[in-house]
Fold:
Amino acid sequence: MKQTAEPFSDPLIDEVRERRRRLVRDHGGLSGWVAHLRREQEKHPEKLLPREAAR
Structure:
């Protein structure tokens, strides 16, 4: 099995990674976080771009 290199370390990147880990943990895993994001999208449909515009 191939070993991966140590991830790039930068204070800003490290903070983003830590926040992502906390969000996933606080919502019971990745699927819980995705479900939370979808609920938030449903609350604020006016803030979403149409699919065509997102490409």
In short: Residues 11-46 form one domain.
